[in-house]
Write a structure and sequence with these properties.
Largest sheet of chain B: 9 strands, mixed
Largest sheet of chain A: none
Number of domains of chain B: 2
Order of helices and strands of chain A: HHHHHHHHHHHHHH
Structural class of chain A: mainly alpha
Oligomer: heterodimer
Helix content of chain A: 55-70%
Mean pLDDT of chain A: 85
Strand content of chain A: under 5%
Shape of chain A: globular
Mean pLDDT of chain B: 91
Distance between the termini of chain A: 115 Å
Distance between the termini of chain B: 70 Å
Number of domains of chain A: 1
Low-confidence stretches of chain B: 17-29
CATH superfamily of the largest domain in chain B: FAD/NAD(P)-binding domain
CATH topology of the largest domain in chain B: FAD/NAD(P)-binding domain
Shape of chain B: elongated
Chain lengths: ~290, ~475
């Protein structure tokens, strides 16, 4: 008589534990953060998902915040900072804001992505000058970027909240077109202030810290003009996350702004150009005065 | 100088001839009133249970009893189709069931339409905090009974016991004080004139005539409380599967609790306390959309539930989509709704009322006439049954010791036994309703912590279960 001693192999034990954690995470995504450890990660909830423990998330937030303060061109770190700080409440609040609006719900159902394949860029270039689509593609061409440069969301646990974050990231370029703020550091900070007042994502609020890296004149302009504009408009406007951009490409920008309740800010490029001209003129006068 | 009108002392309030405007009907007195020991106005569960209790108790079975009921309860009830349940159901606690068994009414119930349930799950709509009741013994938490089943059983018991003069259908057109005849001084006996022309005088008048009790108005007893600004939507539902063990589910949404209580087979009764606007929306939905809303009420987040109430149709598809993206455990949920029984969706306003006292000279109130409670704990009918049990006890004690069953000296014992306990239950249900209506973050966190703590503390949970069961 043989006795079947079925001693489970280590790999099957790990698999079983992982599956149990997976069940726990599926039942409640936030419960997974308490029950898993570095050696016992749950399975991803969507393609590209990287579940993090709270310590890992905190370390990611702090380190990416410090690094992109000194090097704001690191868009991937800004993205990581956004994802690390958005849970559990800010991204859920943003998703609920989408669920409260009929358009937002349609966006969540359709889950459109803004890529160079999904948008017909040559067609957008052919649109009239006052349309959202034309403004957007002109902005893309001026800055030399494509819609594909945005990184994918990795660190948000809930699949739907991950899509909301992705949508926010891809819509950021449209916010530039909507507000008319350029991609220089000053314009980005002003736009981030507007996004913070409107979406409430902590990363946008932390990005206002980049004011410290601006030049003196730029800082003064921010505190006197663009900061107040951003706060006032961000709070009173409709949720910009609920704009179905794919359907608004042919709308008039001004009409869309009125519908959302956003005032057009003073033209930053024109102000900067005027400032540069003024300084150039002063320098020339000073040199002429020294020579004579 | 014209003579001054003679000053007469005012009668104490409980002896004053009443006649609030709404009771000023034409009174027809034909001859001397018929004398009864106990006249019960109202043939609902409380009134019928009281008379059945008095008849089945040996020390009070000789009393002359009368029942006055506006609806015709002498006709046999209409046969109901199998699988069709009344939308007014009550949850009978073990103590109510024990009392009904003692008086012999339990065996008269149609047991195939009574559903005992052994498990209960209650959870929060804003957090994942939940409490589950699954008693170790096989005794049920409560029994779901249709109100008509109960009243029919009590009526049959009274008919089989006999000895109760039933005036049905008959309305009370006037309540006053009796005449003083050469043989009787009925000036302190409540005397009723009925729409049929009969007049009765009662040694003890029982008001079991519901929340808007005319007997209570006659006695001048104020009833204090407030309206909740909510209505209870009721419906009879067919679920997709017959679950075992039978479980009662209740979820506290911000607008009020939604409860799904099991009936025999794959059926359940719904009690959903919500705002009047949302109730109107729900009642206007098609059967499938209504069922989808009920499913959503237990599974989806408040944001989705709020949005569903803004749609006039299409909830089925919306709920199917949202279920895929909401984190919940299907094993903890009631079975999904397959169909809504035609014509069973109704709504009734919710309020809390408590009479200042239950007694007056030769008068006692039982049931909803004395108190109205929020349905979230399923206590309304059970408090009435407990009142009746206490009153029957008090009357039987009085009769055995030779007391006057109508005197306040005797009846005060009834108030002492029931008023405090009822007040506590009303208060607890009211505070639970207010606590779970709050949306403020820290309060939600605190109440979730409390609920989880109570769920883990066996003795505390057992104490609460016993209190709710009336033990």
């Amino acid at each position: 008589m043989t006795v079947n001693l079925a001693i489970p192999r280590t790999s099957s034990v790990v698999l079983r534990l992982t599956r149990q954690c997976q069940c726990a995470v599926r039942a409640n995504p936030l419960a997974g953060q308490r029950t898993f450890s570095v050696l016992n990660r749950p399975t991803p909830n969507y393609e590209g998902h990287v579940p993090l423990t709270p310590i890992e998330r905190g370390a990611l937030a702090i380190s990416s915040a410090i690094w992109c303060f000194f090097d704001p061109t690191r868009a991937d770190l800004i993205a990581a900072l956004g994802e690390a700080t958005a849970q559990p409440f800010p991204i859920t609040r943003l998703r609920d804001a989408m669920l409260r609006s009929p358009t937002g719900r349609r966006i969540l159902r359709d889950r459109p992505r803004i890529t160079s394949q999904s948008l017909n860029l040559p067609y957008l270039r052919s649109l009239p000058a006052n349309t959202v689509g034309r403004n957007y593609v002109e902005w893309l061409d001026r800055e030399g970027v494509t819609p594909d440069t945005r990184s994918s969301v990795q660190y948000i646990d809930d699949a739907e909240c991950a899509y909301v974050m992705q949508r926010y990231r891809e819509s950021h370029d449209f916010y530039h077109a909507l507000t008319g703020l350029p991609v220089v550091r000053e314009g980005e900070v002003a736009l981030k202030a507007f996004e913070f007042a409107n979406t409430g994502l902590p990363m946008t609020g932390l990005s206002i810290g980049a004011v410290a890296t601006l030049k003196k004149a730029e800082r003064e302009r921010f505190w006197s003009v663009y900061g107040p504009w951003a706060v006032r408009n961000g709070l009173q406007a409709e949720e910009v996350i609920n704009v179905y951009w794919e359907e608004e490409l042919e709308s008039d920008v001004e009409a869309l702004r009125t519908r959302l309740g956003i005032e057009k800010p003073p033209d930053l490029r024109a102000m900067r150009k005027a400032e540069r001209e003024r300084r150039k003129r002063e320098r020339q006068e000073r040199e002429a005065g020294l020579r004579s | 100088m014209p003579p001054r009108p003679q000053w007469r002392p005012k009668r104490p309030i409980f002896l004053r001839t009443p006649c609030p405007r709404h009771l000023r009907f034409t009174s027809t007195t034909t001859g001397a009133p018929e004398l009864f020991d106990v006249v019960c106005v109202g043939g609902g569960p409380a009134g019928l249970s009281l008379l059945a209790g008095l008849r089945s108790n040996p020390s009070t079975s000789h009393l002359k009893l009368a029942l006055i009921e506006a609806q015709d309860i002498t006709q046999p009830p209409r046969p109901v189709a199998p699988g069709s349940y009344s939308n007014r159901c009550s949850s009978l606690t073990p103590s109510s069931a024990a009392y009904l068994q003692r008086i012999g009414a339990w065996s008269q119930l149609d047991r195939s339409r009574v559903q005992p349930y052994t498990h209960m799950r209650v959870w929060d709509g804003l957090s994942s905090a939940a409490i589950t009741f699954d008693p170790p013994s096989t005794s049920p938490i409560a029994y779901m009974v249709e109100n008509t089943n109960l009243t029919t059983a009590l009526s049959s018991l009274i008919t089989s016991l006999g000895g109760v003069h039933t005036f049905s259908p008959a309305r009370v057109s006037h309540i006053g004080h009796g005449p003083t005849t050469p043989t009787h001084d009925l000036s302190s006996w409540p005397t009723l004139s009925l729409s049929t022309g009969a007049t009765l005088s009662a040694r003890l008048l029982i008001g079991a005539d519901g929340a808007a009790s005319p007997v209570r108005s006659y006695a001048g007893i104020p009833s204090r409380g407030w309206d909740y600004g909510r209505v209870g939507v009721v419906a009879s539902l067919r679920l997709s599967s017959d679950s075992a063990p039978k479980t009662a589910f209740q979820r506290f949404l911000t607008t009020g609790p939604v409860a799904l209580l099991p009936l025999p087979g794959p059926y359940a009764t719904l009690v959903w306390s919500t705002t009047p606007e949302r109730a109107a929306r729900l009642r206007g939905l098609s059967g499938e959309d209504f069922g989808a809303c009920v499913d959503a009420a237990f599974r989806l987040g408040m944001v989705d539930i709020d949005y569903l109430h803004t749609m006039s149709r299409g909830q089925v598809e919306e709920v199917a989509w949202r279920k895929k993206h909401t984190a919940y455990s299907e094993a903890d949920m009631p079975a999904s709704v397959e169909a809504v029984q035609d014509g069973s969706v109704a709504a009734f306003p919710l309020k809390m009322r408590h009479a200042d006292t239950y007694i007056s000279n030769r008068l006692a109130l039982v049931g909803d006439a004395a108190h109205t409670v929020h349905p979230l704990a399923g206590q309304g009918l059970n408090l009435g049954q407990a009142d009746v049990a206490a009153l029957v006890d008090v009357i039987s004690d009085a009769v055995s010791t030779g007391g006057d069953i109508g005197s306040t000296l005797v009846l005060e014992e009834y108030v002492a036994r029931r008023w405090g306990a009822n007040h506590a239950m009303l208060g607890v249900c009211d505070k639970l309703h207010k606590l779970y209506s709050a949306e403020w973050g820290p309060l939600v966190g605190l109440r979730s912590l409390g609920l989880r703590a109570v769920d883990k503390l066996g003795p505390v949970k057992g104490f609460l279960m016993r209190q709710a069961a009336g033990m």
